[in-house]
Structure formats: C-alpha cells, structure tokens
Amino acid sequence: MPSKKASWFDNVNPNVFFSTVIIISVFLALVIFTPDAFNLLTNQLNQWITASFSWFYVLAVAIFLIALTCIALSKMGRIKLGPDHSEPEYKNSSWFAMLFTAGMGIGLMFFGVAEPVMHYVSPPTGTPETIQSAQQSMRITFFHWGLHAWAIYALVGLSLAYFSFRHNLPLKVRSGLYPIIGKRIYGPIGDGIDTFATIGTIFGIATTLGFGVTQISSGLNYLFDFENSIQTQVILIILVSALASFSVFLGLDKGIKRLSELNIILAVILLAFVFFASSSIYILQTTIQNIGQYVSNLFAMTFNLYAYQPTGWIGGWTIMYWAWWISWSPFVGMFIARVSRGRTIREFIVGVLLIPTGFTLVWMGFMGNAALFSILFENQGGLVAAVEKDSSVALFEFLNHLPFSGASSLLATVLVFLFFVTSADSGSLITDYLTAKTEHSPAWQRLFWTATIAVLSIILLIAGGLEALQSAVIMSALPFTFIMLLLCIGLIKALRLDVTKMQALQSARITPRAIHNPRSWQQRLSLIMHSPHSESEVKAYIEQDVRQAFENLKREFQRRQQDVSIVESDQGLLFKVNHHDEINFIYQVAVSKTLAPSFMLQDQNEDTQQSYIAEVFLREGGKNYNVMEWTQEDLLQDILEQYERHLYFLNVVRN
C-alpha cells in the first residue's frame, strides 16, 4: 500500500501557529483603525503597571540572578545539558558570537553613546551635566546592560536546554513547566504558553527592527545624504528581511553562525578605532573605575526602587529595561539554549552571564566614556543637542568628531545592518521552532515568519504604531514574569532530583559477592526484592549475625595489635577502631524506620507500609543502605571496604 503523501503543513502546530497569526492580525487592526484609542489604552496600562508592579519586576529579576548564582556554585553545576557523554556542538568563539549578537548586538549600537549622554543630561538624582552625573550615568548604563539582563536570558535558556537535551522534551518554553504541570504541557496549557512566547518574540523583534531601521536610515543620511523618510526605512526593512530570509534558508551553522562571527570581528574593529582615536588613557581609567563602582554597588542598585524620590525615572528606564529583557527572553533564551547542547550547567551560566556582560561593559565603557570625554573636555555640546533631538543619530554625531569619521560611520552603519540581519534571522528561526511540531520544518515555515515580522514592522512604521508596539511588549512582560518564576521553581526542583540521583548512583552499596558460597542470580534477586521486615526481626538479625561478624573481625584486629571495641546501643551495634591521635573508624548497624516500596506490598493498608531496615552508619552519619539478610561474609567484606576507604582518607590527610 503506498504511503500517504506528506502535506505542506504537516509540521505546523495549528494551535500555536494560527492563534499567533490571529492575535497579531487583531493587534494590527487595532493599531490601524483605532490608533488614538489604542495608544491611550496602552499608555494608561503602562503607567498602571509601572506604578503597581515596579517592586515585582525588581524582586523577580533579583531572584533570577541569585538563583543562577546558587545553581552554578552548587553540585547542580556539574550536570550537563545533555547526556553525560555529550560534548559542545560549537567551539567557544562561535558560541559566544551567536549568543551575543542574538541578545544585544543592535541595542549596543543604538544605546552605546545615547544612553550615557541621556543619563548625564537627566540623572535620576543629583545635578545634571556634572562630573558626578557623568559617573552616575555610566554606573546606571552598566547596570541596565549587565548581569541582570543576561540573568533573564540565562534562566530561560538554561531551563529549555536542560529539559530538552537532558530529558528529551521539546525545545519549547512549555517544557520548562514539566516538573509543575507534568504531561499537561502537551495540551492546551502548553500551547497557550508557547503562543504567548511566540507573540512576545515577534513583537520584540519587530520593535528592534524599528530601532535598527531608524539608526541605519540616520547613518545613510549622514554618509550619503539619503532622505531619512518612511519610504527609505521601508526599503531598508525589505532589504534586511531578504538577507535574513537567505540566512534562515542556509540554516544555523552556515547562515547565522557565520554572520555572528563577522559581526563580532567588525564590532571589535570599531571598538578599537574609538579607543585609539579618542583619549585612550582616559577611557581605560574611567572604564576600570566604572566597573569597580558597578560591582561595589551591584546589590544596592538591584533593589533600588527610588521609593524616596518618586520622580517616575525608574519606570522610564530600569523597569522599562527589565520588561524589555523579559519580553525578549523567550527568543534569546531559546536561541542560546539551541546552541549550548553538551555544556555543563556551570559552564553555561558562567559563559552566558560573564562573557557577554564583560564585552558589554567594555563596549559601553569605551563608547560612553569617549562620548562624555568629548562633552566634558572638548566642549562638544552639539552631541548633547543631537541626542536630545534624535537618539538614533547619537553614534554618528559622536563619530563625526573623531578622525576618519566617514570610514568609521560607514563601518558603524554596516555593523548595525548586520546586527539587524542576525536579530531578524535568529528571531525567525526561533519563532519557527515555537510554532512547529519539530525542529526540522520546511523552508517555507521559516521564511513565512521572516516575512510576517517584516510586514508587521512596515505596517506599524507607516501607521506610527511603534510606540504602541513598545508599550505592548512591556505589558506582555508582566504575565511572562510569572511564567519565568515558575520556570525557576521547576528548574530547581528537577535539578535537585538529578543531583540526588547522581549522588545515589555514586554512593549506592550493592550486595557483596560471596566468595566461598557464591549466590545464584535468582538468590541475589530474592535478596534485593526482600519483603518488609518488622523491628523485632531487624533487631534479632543485628544481635545474632551482625554481632558474630563484629566479634570475628575484632579478634583479627586484636591479633594485629589494634585497639578495637564493640559498643551496644538501643538501636544496634557499633564497631570502633581506635586510631588514637588520628580520626577513629566507626561502623555501626542500627535499626531504621522506612517506608516499604509500594510495588513490593501485597496489602496496601497503612499499617503494612511501615518497614524497618538494618542501616549502616559511619562516623559521618547514615549511609542509607540496608544490610538486612546479608551473610556474615557479606558484612565482613563491607566493613573492610569501608575501613580501607577510611585508611586512604587518613593517608591523604597525613600527607
């Protein structure tokens, strides 16, 4: 019988795909046909969210950073994102380039000069346009673009990578909630979570296209006197989307990877030019001082809500940034998860938090301090005026005062353009992952989302709805913050179970192999699958078999001139070897209460579920293994193994 021919939409998840398309269409209709009412509604909602939930954003982001730090420093950090034998798919340089350009590349180009200048002119506290406000502006800029931003990305990325590569769940946001809702992630709840993540991703990318296209247009206007108009910006969006489509068509390894590596090379060239063309010593001194101030004030800034200075500044900046990063986290988190298979959790957290943050601080430090130097010591007041008028021209206005301004501005424009493409193509790739059944979707699905994002950006640009879209992105971050907290809880819950399993496998004791009277495999299975024992049965075993084994071993130790004693207790017997000035060896077998495995019980009454075991205790405490029904030879072998380990420990300490 001939096989059924595959349909063109076989790999589409209809619940996520079509609900996303419908919601975006409704959003566009509201922006186009009722722009004034929609803008008014979004502005009022944003004001309410800022006034009512600023504390929630600040606390949630702090929890994310603290949780990741604790995970990295704990035993959980040794777990791999994949099987224990897996290795990283990408070398470190390619990995860093891809996660960085997808996460913040275009934002650094837009705000590298603009934000420090804006904080210098309008600081949250203190007198504007002073040395103090310049220092404060850099500290705030570092704070907004530093560890907290990448902690948001890292939490989502770690959750998705862990559940996908370690537990073979789909590489989707829904998988992070598996420890909480179980198999319901495959139902309507999971579809709803992925739909919300997809919409946030599309809106975030479309808004970034709005930022990027205005900066490219400003660069072309500065370089070639192109008209900085809507028509020019629409043409740029079409061109960028076409290149992004080509990159998406090539795939992750050939397209996005190579573009990302090229971006990093060009970014380093531009950064080096600014460093050597401006006051190098000043840039080094101030950047190092800024990093020190950022690190030393990190805790205070994390929880600073400016509650005693309610000027509204925090809502326009810090809360806006936290919401922005959260709304982008499904996209960036899933992308860095996709390229991080095979790395340990500690390597992932350290890499995602510290490497991009380090580059970001250097970038902001060099660009921001060079711009402030030109204002403070070279009387370049025109830069302040240009930023206040149009922040998209800040970078080009700054480069205009350096040597070779034409070449550097051209390089900056190309760099913004390439960052623009990598954000668009990686965003389209992740959107396709979220709306498809598997990762191996046909090319049309990936190209469809590239075109959808481009059309969304163009319509909003023409309708003047980018501000409304930015407001929608910020609002969407509030409910997703709750989802991220659940992701955090589910991740820690699963990791603790994984660590427990890892420790159990390492420390588990198996029944010793009898030498003189070896057991058959049936006898060994019978010993393992024993029936529950009563307390009196365990005590009788300890008094008879365990005591006899201890006595035999005691005589042998004493024959070798060792000081050995057997001590009775209410719950068992203790065998002690006295090492005098060194740590003594203790091996105790005691009665311990436990719950019998349900699969071994014929009667499920509450009274029969209670069982007792003969547990081994060493000096450090219980070892959580049962020696009940072991032969005397089994016990002697186990005691000698533990004693040999103790002697090895003493030798390590002694040396």
TrEMBL record:
GO cellular component annotations of the record: plasma membrane
Top-level taxonomic group: Bacteria
Localization in the cell: Cell membrane
Coiled coil, from the record: none
Keyword Cytoplasm: no
Topology of the protein relative to the lipid bilayer: Multi-pass membrane protein
Main location, first listed in the record: membrane
Any Pfam family matching the protein: BCCT
GO molecular function: transmembrane transporter activity
PROSITE patterns: BCCT
Transmembrane stretches, start-end: 12-33, 53-74, 95-114, 147-165, 193-213, 233-252, 264-284, 314-336, 348-366, 410-435, 447-466, 472-492
Keywords, sorted A to Z: Cell membrane, Membrane, Transmembrane, Transmembrane helix, Transport
Family: Belongs to the BCCT transporter (TC 2.A.15) family.
NCBIfam families assigned: bcct, PRK09928.1
Protein name per UniProt: BCCT family transporter
